[in-house]
Amino acid sequence: MLITQGDLLKDINLPEDLKKLRPDQMHQVCQELRQYIIDMVSVHGGHFGASLGVVELTVALHYVLNTPDDQLIWDVGHQAYGHKILTGRKDKFYTNRIYGGISGFPKRKESEYDSFGVGHSSTSISAALGMAMGSLHNGEKHRQHVAVIGDGALTAGLAFEGMNHAGSINDANLLIILNDNCMAIDPNVGALKEYLTDITTSKTYNKVKDEVWNLLGKMSKFGKSARDIVAKVENAMKGALLSQSNFFEALNLRYFGPIDGHDIDHLVAVLNDMKNIPGPKILHVLTVKGKGYAPAELDQTKWHAPGLFDKVTGEIKKKIITHPTAPKYQDVFGHTIVELAEKNPKIVGITPAMPSGSSLNIMMKAMPDRAFDVGIAEQHAVTLSAGMATRGLAVYCNIYSSFMQRAYDQVIHDVCIQNLPVIFCLDRAGFAGADGPTHHGAYDIAFMRCIPNMVVASPMNEEELRNLMFLAQSDSFQAGGEAITLRYPRGEGVMPDWRKPFSEIKVGEGRKLKEGEDLAILSFGPTGNEVIKAIETLEPEFSVAHYDMRFAKPLDEALLHEVFEKFTHVITVEDGCLQGGIGSAILEFMVDHGYSSKVKRLGIPDRLVEHGEQYQLYAECGYDAKGIVETVRSLQIQGHLA
Ligand SMILES: Cc1ncc(C[n+]2csc(CCOP(=O)(O)OP(=O)(O)O)c2C)c(N)n1
Ligand SMILES: CC(=O)[C@@H](O)[C@H](O)COP(=O)(O)O
Ligand SMILES: [Mg+2]
């Protein structure tokens, strides 16, 4: 499809081109940029509503700042499509998130305009402060450092840690722009959200704010210095608001706003003023997620990352899937937790800001007093779960595998050392796909299996996920005090008929799926389905035994003795990093027990694997069915049946 670029946008490739235009042309630039994002995302996919919401902010920032000399950091980065388009990637934008194409997030190696690589939220304030302090150290006083952070991202501890420090560095040239649209992926939650609404709607506050901005305007005309203006502003604000202290001001961050984030003229004027205001400061900008595309404004969660859509009708196109009626693993989780909770009153569910992504929203709807969204706060989610577990609750704490990285200390210190049987459901384990390396759940097998008091399991299909969830909440498991990690991937499973009655699985018990004579393949989790396909191709050339390990910890030792006593060639397959994963665990077992089979491990190698469709990444790393077949053929097994 031919996508046109608009009269002004077609000549803008870099911010220097934007700066050649008159201020009154910025309206048109915004209009054209917004349309370009709509056109592109409708046919190529990706995140959507967040970028539409910051079109004006993006244009204003690149018009006013001197990027890339000035440092501009987009928190999370899912809203940075406009930034990418204005900074040299317009003509490549059709490759966004596609295998071999540009990343969906700012990335240092992709562009000098991407000051900091992002993907996980709430890093921008600390990173920008670090840059500001670095510039101070280097004597680069002219440089601006700007962090654009959403109201959702602001709920994380890391953002608070950054603000706490920033407020004590009086000479740091740091501007935090709070992009407040009252949304995370789902509606934003928590007391901070209420506070932001309060300062946005408070009549007293806004009256004072208007007076202050007027004052600022008048004083500029008289050529007063920014420092003088700020002093007046602060006096006016503090005098009038004694009874209503401002949270950010209390942290010594000068607070400005709230202002309309879709008023490009005002944004340009304010950002120009901000450049001359010294020290750490925060500008509160109000925006609408999905701005300018009606369906996205109306259902902001659905349009966070809608997939392909018809831009005229707003109809979201359905994905073609191999197993048309197989459910997503996340939905099996969502329905199964409700089913279990109906029988077990001790069950509760926790998600840090991913109700839709994890499908915990099914339980939040069915049992609102037993399922909780705690905001983007993975560390808190884990320790909260630990606290609940001390009171005898069976807590399913559902966190995407890669976001769990942030809560590692809490898993060790607050859960495992304290013998608390929290149930960690790690969704998006293995390759996340188009989100790329920031989101791949590559490391959890390795980082979970080394913790005492932690069981690590992965279901090969939907039925297995249900049975593992059933095991985790059982009285006998909960009484043991061990935590459990259940890891499963993004996307659909393989069992259209998945709602089977629960059956018992014993902790640490794997299963033999198929006998064989030439070699054994040991799989962990859904990679077992690729092994099944590979074996269909390999037989009768090779006689292959297949074991589904189910547990990376504890290992099924009886099963492994059987394997190593019988087979000289063993292949392990996992959707996780090879360093320290289940293949490593099996090697440890082999050496510890004096076996000496030839073991080939398949999984994610020790390098960053970029973005692409999951199947492309499995193929790249050689653990799709084809890769497994090739590995078997390369083993040169003597005396096999062929
Ligand atoms: C540590 C971490 N947890 C969760 C996510 C998933 N996530 C991506 S965007 C988002 C919502 C962010 O909300 P906000 O910062 O307000 O940005 P908006 O989408 O509203 O522009 C969430 C929860 C993430 N990227 N990083
Ligand atoms: C930016 C971000 O972190 C989320 O939007 C993430 O892309 C969601 O991933 P899923 O699409 O797998 O839920
Ligand atoms: Mg938001």
TrEMBL record:
<dbReference type="GO" id="GO:0009228">
    <property type="term" value="P:thiamine biosynthetic process"/>
</dbReference>
<feature type="binding site">
    <location>
        <position position="293"/>
    </location>
    <ligand>
        <name>thiamine diphosphate</name>
    </ligand>
</feature>
<comment type="subunit">
    <text>Homodimer.</text>
</comment>
<dbReference type="InterPro" id="IPR005477">
    <property type="entry name" value="Dxylulose-5-P_synthase"/>
</dbReference>
<dbReference type="InterPro" id="IPR005475">
    <property type="entry name" value="Transketolase-like_Pyr-bd"/>
</dbReference>
<keyword id="KW-0460">Magnesium</keyword>
<keyword id="KW-0786">Thiamine pyrophosphate</keyword>
<dbReference type="GO" id="GO:0019288">
    <property type="term" value="P:isopentenyl diphosphate biosynthetic process, methylerythritol 4-phosphate pathway"/>
</dbReference>
<feature type="domain" description="Transketolase-like pyrimidine-binding">
    <location>
        <begin position="327"/>
        <end position="496"/>
    </location>
</feature>
<dbReference type="GO" id="GO:0008661">
    <property type="term" value="F:1-deoxy-D-xylulose-5-phosphate synthase activity"/>
</dbReference>
<dbReference type="InterPro" id="IPR033248">
    <property type="entry name" value="Transketolase_C"/>
</dbReference>
<dbReference type="InterPro" id="IPR049557">
    <property type="entry name" value="Transketolase_CS"/>
</dbReference>
<keyword id="KW-0784">Thiamine biosynthesis</keyword>
<feature type="binding site">
    <location>
        <begin position="152"/>
        <end position="153"/>
    </location>
    <ligand>
        <name>thiamine diphosphate</name>
    </ligand>
</feature>
<dbReference type="InterPro" id="IPR029061">
    <property type="entry name" value="THDP-binding"/>
</dbReference>
<keyword id="KW-0808">Transferase</keyword>
<feature type="binding site">
    <location>
        <position position="378"/>
    </location>
    <ligand>
        <name>thiamine diphosphate</name>
    </ligand>
</feature>
<feature type="binding site">
    <location>
        <position position="181"/>
    </location>
    <ligand>
        <name>thiamine diphosphate</name>
    </ligand>
</feature>
<dbReference type="GO" id="GO:0000287">
    <property type="term" value="F:magnesium ion binding"/>
</dbReference>
<dbReference type="GO" id="GO:0005829">
    <property type="term" value="C:cytosol"/>
</dbReference>
<feature type="binding site">
    <location>
        <position position="151"/>
    </location>
    <ligand>
        <name>Mg(2+)</name>
    </ligand>
</feature>
<protein>
    <recommendedName>
        <fullName>1-deoxy-D-xylulose-5-phosphate synthase</fullName>
        <ecNumber>2.2.1.7</ecNumber>
    </recommendedName>
</protein>
<comment type="similarity">
    <text>Belongs to the transketolase family. DXPS subfamily.</text>
</comment>
<comment type="pathway">
    <text>Metabolic intermediate biosynthesis; 1-deoxy-D-xylulose 5-phosphate biosynthesis; 1-deoxy-D-xylulose 5-phosphate from D-glyceraldehyde 3-phosphate and pyruvate: step 1/1.</text>
</comment>
<dbReference type="Pfam" id="PF13292">
    <property type="entry name" value="DXP_synthase_N"/>
</dbReference>
<dbReference type="Pfam" id="PF02779">
    <property type="entry name" value="Transket_pyr"/>
</dbReference>
<keyword id="KW-0479">Metal-binding</keyword>
<dbReference type="GO" id="GO:0016114">
    <property type="term" value="P:terpenoid biosynthetic process"/>
</dbReference>
<feature type="binding site">
    <location>
        <position position="78"/>
    </location>
    <ligand>
        <name>thiamine diphosphate</name>
    </ligand>
</feature>
<comment type="function">
    <text>Catalyzes the acyloin condensation reaction between C atoms 2 and 3 of pyruvate and glyceraldehyde 3-phosphate to yield 1-deoxy-D-xylulose-5-phosphate (DXP).</text>
</comment>
<keyword id="KW-0414">Isoprene biosynthesis</keyword>
<feature type="binding site">
    <location>
        <begin position="119"/>
        <end position="121"/>
    </location>
    <ligand>
        <name>thiamine diphosphate</name>
    </ligand>
</feature>
<dbReference type="GO" id="GO:0030976">
    <property type="term" value="F:thiamine pyrophosphate binding"/>
</dbReference>
<dbReference type="Pfam" id="PF02780">
    <property type="entry name" value="Transketolase_C"/>
</dbReference>
<feature type="binding site">
    <location>
        <position position="181"/>
    </location>
    <ligand>
        <name>Mg(2+)</name>
    </ligand>
</feature>
<dbReference type="InterPro" id="IPR020826">
    <property type="entry name" value="Transketolase_BS"/>
</dbReference>
<dbReference type="InterPro" id="IPR009014">
    <property type="entry name" value="Transketo_C/PFOR_II"/>
</dbReference>
